[in-house]
Request: fold
Amino acid sequence: MSGHVFHPGHEPLHGITVVVECVDRRTMVGRFHHTDQRGVHLLDVAMHRPDDGDGPREAFLERTQKFGVKAEHPHVLVPEHEVVSVTPLREALQQ
Amino acid sequence: MMYDPQLVAPMREETVQLGAKELRTVAEVDQALANQSGTTLVFVNSVCGCAAGMARPALRLALKHAVTPQAVYSVFAGQDTDATARARSYFGEYQPSSPSMALLRDGEVVYIMHRHMIEGRSPEEIARDLTAEFEKHCAAQVED
Reply:
């Protein structure tokens, strides 16, 4: 059922907890809401910044998998040109 | 956002019918979860699509398994907010999400199924994960 649209009328990832990797090496985990001309809109977002002493990205994802998303930002807009990848959290952990 | 209670009523009813006792107040939560012994599943219900299409059907399947928790409770996120917050206070350092399910043994969380472990999966897949945890953590209670 991967990619199943359980919110009709929305994008396939709407409501799914995703990992967004950015060109500046930040990693965000949050609920995908939608995309528009400005970029990707995420809700209830945890953010990992490797340059700010946040430790390894893998540890951040493993911690998030086990303990859940520590939502520090209610809404984050990631400009499209800054997005490297958008992957459901469950799949990101399997890679 | 609080939803119309009439809209939510069938979601509550579905949860009760599958075998969960609803906890709607802080006092009810404390009575159920404080000083508990044995195994307890707490289902954090919600109005979202993955609760309706995945979490509740999965819980229904899982509770038909031979090994199940001794007690099953539910709280309704976004509706019974105080009761839900209180229930989550028993989950320690685990972050809130809904829908979700917490399995406790003697008051300690031994497994949490977060929302991200429910999204986009079939009820059968989710139930399979749940029953594996039931067998791991609840089997001793069945043998007693």
About this structure: The helical segments of chain A are 57-67, 89-94. Residues 57-67 of chain A form the longest helix (11 residues).
